[in-house]
């Protein structure tokens, strides 16, 4: 992410990533780490979830590009959509590379993402921009949280995709400009941003409840099940970061 | 294009491109050629028309990706959409590079493309595939027709974008498969393909009537106006190529 509000984080590790990985998997490569079937299942889930997330984001950003007031705004959103598609390609190719059928890996996450997007179809251009920014930022926070829990090969891929995000900074400028021009817009968009975050959390929690291996890995690989409280703390860190970004954008709660 | 039905054309010049350029512009570079204000205006029109065409194609392919029956079909259409976006970027950057405001250059063509897409929204996945294939092929034929009439720099750009098309060959396979499985599908899709071509011609003729400089260049740069009959012949060559491709696809008229 190179958006103004968290640019300072990019050289240091984000708060969540300093937790040492309980399984010590971070020091291993994929071949070694994937000998553990639970770890392998978790990574396949993770790559499937990220891949479908990128494909769904592509589709929604392209759809939201229709709301653009000018051709150059439309081109900016199309550019973000295209970047998401290339992330999808990298994640899908990685799934194929480790011998997994990408479609099968993505299927379990289709309902959650489609549910999220269905519940959060923007009704105008500014809502679309806030959604693009919030989505990009939450994805970035999540990628960071999860990176420290991964073997070095998978971590390289996840951080590589992360490096290439941050296309949403133009959204920040446009939203700030709109709020400056009419401060009442800020109230409406603040409600919208809370709704986006609420819907994202609700869909994520559904995924956590459904996907044991993934959830276990997310909290550091406690072997016999996972600590729901730790998942809660992760969500809580992501929510806090979101709240700070929204405040910086002039969308205080 | 690398689609089966015209693969043989790719090393030789397409029929329309063997006409010698009446202005001799093909031997000049952009700096020399653009000293003629009418030529410059024609190229700005052309790049604007192609750029908006690519952006509109991006948007429609992304929209049509929603009709995909499987995730991998969706990804194929998303890939085509993303490729169109990158064509758009090259054409837009070229407009900026020659000191033109891309939005201004694209605006005159928005109505024609939007009109085309509005009149030809596919009602199902197969119609979407046929549209992707027909659109890609017509664009390719048109790029070839026009390339011979351009200065060497602009020609390089246009042929470069052309080289990178042909993502529609997967559409050919899918459509053939569907017709084999149920021959009645062929009749419906043949009607659809004719409607696509009819709508494309009708929108193109509107553009030709509106944009004098562009039309003059398209017919070889007759200085004092242009020969409508020659434009007609160009459309006729493109239509014939389309008819042959449709027949090869099992969509005879």
Query: What is the helical fraction of chain A, as a range of percent?
Result: over 70%
Shape of chain A: globular
CATH superfamily membership of chain A: Ferritin, core subunit, four-helix bundle
Order of helices and strands of chain A: HHHHHHHHHH
Say what the CATH topology of chain A is: Ferritin
Could you list the spans of chain A in which at least 5 consecutive residues all have pLDDT below 50? 1-22
- Judged by helices, strands and strand pairing, the structural class of chain A is mainly alpha
Question: What is the number of beta strands of chain A?
Answer: 0
Determine the most extensive contact between two protein chains. Answer: A-B, 27 and 27 residues
Classified by CATH, the class of chain A is Mainly Alpha
Distance between the termini of chain A: 23 Å
Explain what this protein looks like in three dimensions:
Chains A, B: It comes from Streptomyces kaempferi. Chains A, B: Residues 10-25 have a biased composition (Low complexity). Chains A, B: It holds the Pfam family MiaE_2. Chains A, B: Residues 37-221 form the Ferritin-like domain. Chains A, B: Residues 1-25 are annotated as: Disordered. The structure is a homodimer of 253-residue chains. By secondary structure, chain A is mainly α. The first copy, chain A, has a single domain (25-248), classed as Ferritin, core subunit, four-helix bundle (Ferritin), CATH 1.20.1260.10. Chain A is 71% helix and 0% strand. The first copy, chain A, is built from 10 helices and no strands. The first copy, chain A, has helices spanning 30-33, 37-64, 71-97, 102-119, 125-147, 152-163, 169-181, 184-210, 212-218, 228-248. Chain A is globular. At the A-B interface, α2, α3 and α4 of A face α2, α3 and α4 of B.
